[in-house]
Lysophosphatidic acid acyltransferase loa1 (Saccharomyces pastorianus), 188 residues
Amino acid sequence: MEKYTNWRDNGTGIAPFLPNTIRKPSKVMTACLLGILGVKTIIMLPLIMLYLLTGQNNLLGLILKFTFSWKEEITVQGIKKRDVRKSKHYPQKGKLYICNCTSPLDAFSVVLLAQGPVTLLVPSNDIVYKVSIREFINFILAGVLDIKLKEFIDPSIKTMKLPSRHCPFPIWSIYLDFSLSHKYSRII
């Protein structure tokens, strides 16, 4: 790095940032990785079918860990990592949590973290829609901000009117094992 000292910032003395080059994987490596993924998927196929029939969160976690090396690290503000306890710091049954959504995979994370059945609520204008995980993922992948479009939700889905105060940006909420109309005022 000595050869770059001439280009240091005069005020701070910080050397210029030179980003690392990222090589694309070769076609052989890509083929090998796809082959490994195919073998893992075939091995997990019975568990995938069982998960689709039962909806067990433990099965989903096992499938994701084995097939994609899925791993989550949980941090709680003000709590050391070694002191985080599932029974105390993970999402609890009967509580409402409001979360920002950054990826369709967030729905899987919520399902795996929750200690009970999960209901996803998506606000649109002044109405809250209760959606399944599949509908939520389709909504996020489409990249639109209006959940009311026909291809995302079944018209028979329960909806609820929001008070006039609500967040102007798209959020999703997890609502653990409660009816949609019960204790909703905790959000506002």
